[in-house]
UniProtKB/TrEMBL annotation:
<keyword id="KW-0464">Manganese</keyword>
<feature type="binding site">
    <location>
        <position position="242"/>
    </location>
    <ligand>
        <name>Mn(2+)</name>
    </ligand>
</feature>
<dbReference type="InterPro" id="IPR006035">
    <property type="entry name" value="Ureohydrolase"/>
</dbReference>
<feature type="binding site">
    <location>
        <position position="240"/>
    </location>
    <ligand>
        <name>Mn(2+)</name>
    </ligand>
</feature>
<keyword id="KW-0479">Metal-binding</keyword>
<keyword id="KW-0620">Polyamine biosynthesis</keyword>
<dbReference type="InterPro" id="IPR020855">
    <property type="entry name" value="Ureohydrolase_Mn_BS"/>
</dbReference>
<keyword id="KW-0378">Hydrolase</keyword>
<protein>
    <recommendedName>
        <fullName>Agmatinase</fullName>
        <ecNumber>3.5.3.11</ecNumber>
    </recommendedName>
</protein>
<feature type="binding site">
    <location>
        <position position="160"/>
    </location>
    <ligand>
        <name>Mn(2+)</name>
    </ligand>
</feature>
<feature type="binding site">
    <location>
        <position position="158"/>
    </location>
    <ligand>
        <name>Mn(2+)</name>
    </ligand>
</feature>
<feature type="binding site">
    <location>
        <position position="135"/>
    </location>
    <ligand>
        <name>Mn(2+)</name>
    </ligand>
</feature>
<dbReference type="InterPro" id="IPR023696">
    <property type="entry name" value="Ureohydrolase_dom_sf"/>
</dbReference>
<feature type="binding site">
    <location>
        <position position="162"/>
    </location>
    <ligand>
        <name>Mn(2+)</name>
    </ligand>
</feature>
<dbReference type="GO" id="GO:0008783">
    <property type="term" value="F:agmatinase activity"/>
</dbReference>
<dbReference type="Pfam" id="PF00491">
    <property type="entry name" value="Arginase"/>
</dbReference>
<dbReference type="GO" id="GO:0033389">
    <property type="term" value="P:putrescine biosynthetic process from arginine, via agmatine"/>
</dbReference>
Length: 314
């Protein structure tokens, strides 16, 4: 059959071209769309959390998962993503689960549905890779992962510590204040990278590698500090896109200048790929404030980096 034939008239099924950069952009990087968590061949599950009711600044991160999927088409052609020396599909099988479904405007339902989804993915022996969505959604993602892994270390890339003792029940700046109190995280094994906004320094439990420090030292020094802090503790890696300087990620709710470059972030992640990271997320992507898909492409590239990190551990 020539590719001008219409499958609707020929009755012949035509496989989608997963390498196209513009056609049939339904899933992240062309991964199969599936909710079959019983498939033992699947190693990792990408899914979206289209939520932004916890946002304190510019809204719009509910569109983050859709924006990242669209931008991920730019990554589909390269089977062996540079600088990795293997094709992802040779070492890892992943699916796109779609977005978590919850009642619009109902933060309690979001919390319940996201926790249940993360728990089901981890219980099935797969690594979750979540795309958001405002950072408040990391709280139920953590809850779901901890159900099966126990208390975790946190590797947190951000401009903000998100350890604020806010009065609001739903706020994207409170998760890492609440998580240790719930027994989800061990701050003594946790690290926050790229911080460049105020926090209570005198009683802060997490190791902070602030943006000035990270930008003033070698990538290798930052990698060594993260590795020493986390050790072999099972860890949750969360990446707020505003860790990157707005030059590299303008499409976010609370941009802060003076951040990391996208190159720094990718090299740091490559250097900690062999740590025992059990779950990942990339958050706070707000396409309405983006330019030329810069931020969505950064988010898509980070999510793909997570998959390569997972694949590199075998």
């Amino acid at each position: 059959m020539s590719h001008h034939d219409d499958p609707a008239t020929t009755g012949t099924a035509v496989p989608l071209d997963h390498h196209s950069m513009y056609a049939n952009i339904f899933t992240f990087a062309g991964l199969p769309l599936s909710r079959d968590l019983a498939d033992d061949s699947v190693d990792a599950v990408v899914f979206g959390v289209p939520y932004d009711l916890g946002t304190s600044g510019r809204p719009g991160a509910r569109s983050g998962p859709a924006g990242v999927r669209q931008a991920s088409a730019n990554l589909r052609w390269e089977e062996c993503r540079w600088p990795w020396n293997f094709a992802l599909g040779d070492k890892l099988s992943a699916i796109d689960y779609g977005d978590v479904i919850f009642a619009g405007g109902d933060s309690e339902d979001m919390l319940a549905q996201v926790q249940a989804t993360a728990s089901a993915i981890v219980a099935a022996g797969k690594t979750p890779v979540a795309i958001g969505g405002d950072h408040f959604a990391t709280l139920p993602l953590l809850r779901g992962a901890v159900e099966h892994h126990g208390k975790l270390a946190l590797i947190h890339f951000d401009a903000h510590t998100d350890t604020y003792d806010e009065d609001e029940k739903y706020n994207h700046g409170c998760m890492f204040h609440r998580a240790p109190k719930e027994g989800l995280l061990d701050p003594s094994r946790s690290v926050q990278v790229g911080i460049r906004t105020e926090y209570e320094r005198d009683d802060h439990e997490y190791l902070v590698l602030d943006a000035h420090t990270v930008n003033g030292q070698s990538v290798e020094t930052t990698i060594a500090a993260i590795r020493e802090r986390v050790g072999d503790t099972p860890a949750y890696l969360t990446f707020d896109i505003d860790c990157l300087d707005p030059a590299f990620a303008p499409g976010t709710g609370t941009p802060v200048i003076g951040g990391l470059s996208s190159s720094q972030a990718l090299r740091i992640l490559e250097g900690i790929a062999d740590l025992n990271i059990v779950a990942f997320d990339v958050m706070e992507i707000s396409p309405a404030y983006d330019h030329a898909q810069i931020t969505s492409l950064a988010g898509a590239t980070l999510a793909l980096q997570f998959l390569y990190m997972r694949a590199s551990r075998g």
